[in-house]
Each structure stands twice: as C-alpha cells, then as structure tokens.
Design brief:
about 35% helix, 8 strands, about 160 residues, two-stranded antiparallel ribbon, globular, alpha+beta, five-stranded mixed β-barrel, OB fold (Dihydrolipoamide Acetyltransferase, E2P)
Length: about 160
C-alpha cells in the first residue's frame, strides 16, 4: 500500500513538472508550509508533493537589504499555514514554479505590492497589472517606500555581483 502511494505521488509530481516544462498553465491547492522570503514560498498539495513557488510579477527586497525581513514577515502573516490556490504560469530559470497565489478571494501577489513589501517586476508584469498598486504604495510611503531612496532588488543583486560578492 505504501509503495502504491509513493508511486502515485511521484506520478503527480512528474506530471506537474512536465506540464510546466511544456509551457502549460495549471493550478493546484495546497498548504503553505514555509516562506523563504517576500516572494518565495513552499506549498504542499493534496497529494503531499511540495512545490517551491515564486510570486509572479513581483520582486521583494533581498536578504541583507532594507525591508527584507519585513517583506518575509508580511508574506508569512498573510498565508503561512493556510490553504491557497496557486495558478502556475511558468517555470523560472531556477526551476521554481512561478505563480499567482490566492487565499480565498485575496490576490497575494497584488497585496505584497499594494502594502509596500515588493516592487512590480517589469519582466514578469509585462502588461503593467501591478503598476497602479505600486504607485499607490509609493505615494502613501507604505512599507519599503518609507525609505527615501529604496534600491530595487535587481539593482541590489547587480551591485553585489559587480562587487564580487
């Protein structure tokens, strides 16, 4: 019996990865079991397969950067331990599933930007869906926008690479 369930779980995980690799979108419901940072979580689906999810369209402060801890805490307070729906849109170069995360009728990706804990990430928000919410957070100086000179995470990473760190 145990062997059958291991095989079944393996098949579900393989099918999920193959669907993502083929560029097909899919959704699953799962419990958020950990939060890595303000844009990355792990969720366990109903077949007990664990998925590492990067929130589509956003980029939160990096570890060592101002507001990184606050961004992680904000995401944790929203969904850690909760059942969420993830609409996976692609796999990124790190093989993480990139998705849109919903907790009930709440769109968590959007909330992270609206609350000032992430930037809109133009390469994955090509249509500007999050632009007005980032503008609102900036105008109200929410979260990271309270800093007079916030550094976007992609710039922080570029500087770190240039410094050889």
């Amino acid at each position: 019996m145990r062997r059958v369930s291991v095989v079944a779980i393996s098949l579900v995980v393989a099918a999920t990865v193959l669907a993502a690799a083929a560029g097909r979108r899919y959704s699953f419901t799962g419990k958020v079991v950990s939060i890595a940072d303000g844009e990355t979580l792990s969720a366990r689906d109903t077949a007990q397969a664990e998925h590492k999810i990067h929130l589509q369209g956003i980029d939160s402060p990096e570890k060592g950067q101002a507001f990184a801890t606050e961004a992680k805490d904000a995401l944790s307070s929203k969904i850690l331990g909760q059942m969420v729906r993830v609409d996976v849109v692609e796999l990124d170069r790190s093989r993480r599933e990139v998705g849109r995360v919903y907790f009930g009728d709440r769109f968590i990706n959007l909330e992270m930007i609206r609350d000032g804990f992430a930037w809109r990430y133009p390469p994955s928000d090509r249509h500007g869906e999050f632009t007005p919410f980032e503008g609102q957070a900036r105008a109200l100086k929410r979260g990271l926008w309270a800093d007079p000179h916030p550094v976007p995470p992609w710039e922080f990473r570029r500087r770190k690479r240039a410094a050889g760190q």
